[in-house]
Amino acid sequence: MPITTTRRRLLAGSAAALALPAFARAQSAVKPRLTVISQWSAGSDGAAITALGKKFEEKGGTWQHSPVPGFTTEMMNKLRAQIIAGDPPACSQLKGPEIAAWSKIAPTINLDALVAAAGYEKVVAPDLARLHKPGGKWISLPLQIYSTNMLFLSKRAMDKAKADKIPVTWTDFNELAEKMKAGGVTYPIANGGTRPDDGQKFEASLAGISPAAYRAAIMNLDKKALEGPEIKAAFAQARKISDWMDPNVGAQPYATNLKRFIDGDMGMMIQGGWAQGVLRNAGFKFDDFTITPGPSDNSKPVFLLNADAFIFWQRKEPDLQAGQTLMAQLVMDPAIQTMYSQITGSIPVRTDVDLSGEGWSDGQRRTAAALKDAVANNQAVLSLAHNMAQENGLTAAMIDVITEYVKNKTIKPEEAVTRLAEAVEGAR
Amino acid sequence: MTSAVSTATQPGRPATSEMVRRLPEYLTIWLPLLVSAAHLVSFSLWTIWISFTPSTLVPVSGWVGLRNYTAVLASRNWQIAFDNLLLFGSAFVLLSLVTGLMLAILLDQRIRGENVLRTIFLYPLAVSFVVTGTVWSWLLNPGIGIQKLVHDLGWTSFRFDWLVDRDMAIWTIVIAAVWQSSGFAMALFLAGLRSVDADIIKAAQIDGAGPIRIYRRVILPTLWPITITVVVVQLQFAISAFDLVRALTNGGPGIATQLPALVVYDLMFQRGQLGRGAAAAVLMLLILLAVLLPYAAWRYVQRRRSNHA
């Protein structure tokens, strides 16, 4: 597609021209405007994007956000309809490998010049950067990061177990769970019954056992790795976890159990960092629980990355193009990332943001430190359960196997390994 | 428009003027019917076409033959959904039929407050399936619902945890669906019971038949056409059941309560596999036709028989 390429280059060039020397000139020439769609409409997510919109308006732009409440897939249905109608938003929420998949169905803009001008690439985790530049060009920008395998420990359950050591490896974790059980904690694990909940238990197990095997099997779908001993060990660990869960949880979200977790009726929770925000919103105190990176057998933190991002769709209107430039600059800005993460409870994408100040929690600081460590040790991997490792079709096929395994205790780990490999084969 | 048509037609022929006079009636009936039929047919054809293309996130042209169909049929999700449909469809139709009929017969006893009772039994039908599903999901949840209530009353060994039991979870959907729609069956049956000729019943009474015998031998046999209507309506609900399951179990525990409509939605809008989703939708249409075609044939035979008689 030679025409598209030249157009993209032209656009990138003009974007850079607008961005680099004289942003003020661009503003006087045309008032930046941005059409955005996202699923963030309520709660802390809604508050955060509204705050971002205010900043956009402070810089002289017109902010036109159309939230599509509900699941991400509903936002995607609106995006699909707009793309088919030839009228994509200037900017939309999208994440993980879906960025590459969707960029094939409609032209996006090249943000390379803006990213280079901001010096952004060197402060983003490499695996994360790769997701946002399919084909080597930046077309989307990550906004905030969560880890899906944080370990939450209930203070009261720890007291019941007479334990004070924070578990580091899976062996520590299993011992602590047994101690809790013996000490009168009804269910050592607090869990919901949704698909991502079950998926998280498996991915946390595998990544904690071997981040290398996780990368090969789950991210690269290496056939040999998919049938390897680490996968079987991960299924075995996931079974242990499921044995400690409340079997009465139907399809309810994990948040249903938060009170029992705080009361010490349930002991531990393997959840994303967002649970911190939920706990805080529910009125629980930080003293009631501890947040620490999920178990890792080599004792160095493993970070299962989940990141929200914006993708930028090609538009001809000069005001929308100016709006895209302004938005990209805002999203990369450390001050904006700080503001956003402090509202939602996530951590900034930039690894150079200082989290020691007020407004950050210990959990967020520990998460950020874990990310830094994990990146340094090549132990930051992409979450399967939250659609970061594979496209939706493959993810769903794999989660089918995992969720059935977690719920059906007659399936043996080795059977699950075969089924997982078959599911991958069938969905490709 | 009417005048234009009337000048074009020959005046004097009664059949034509009759047609002209009734033109507005024809227009009001046929125009909407044609528009909706065109929609239905064109979208069905479009879905069938998509099911043969390699479409993923957006519809694309191309031809992959039966690949989407073989992929769907081979998937565990579809196999589970199909087995569930057989079980759910038959159990739900049978139970709602029996419950509806029993309610209708009981209400038919000229009892006091019939109107109130009828409204109560019909009321669930007015509630949306999402609400039904959500309410029953709380009632059936062993940790907070009926089981907990009975435990709190003192019977602590009582177990009713079908919602979280893989093998029994499909029955919770049957329970909720029967609760929702047996009122509908009841209303139809009641109308049927009331339309039985009083003289025949009197004759049976004079011949000395008891009430049970009258129902069995005289009244129920006249209900056949209604029974078949109820079965067909309920079956097509069962085949296309979506919102109830989504709210009640969302296909869980695991994927134990998948149903075809959930699979279609999942493939199309969550997995971004439009082609496969369309193939699953076409398979659903085929199942529906397997129910509706025999029904149409039966209607046809019935009509011919009554014409001959």
TrEMBL record, chain A:
GO cellular component, one term: periplasmic space
Keywords per UniProt: Periplasm, Signal, Transport
Record's signal peptide: 1-24
Keyword match Transport: yes
Subcellular location: Periplasm
Family classification: Belongs to the bacterial solute-binding protein 1 family.
Protein's UniProt name: Carbohydrate ABC transporter substrate-binding protein
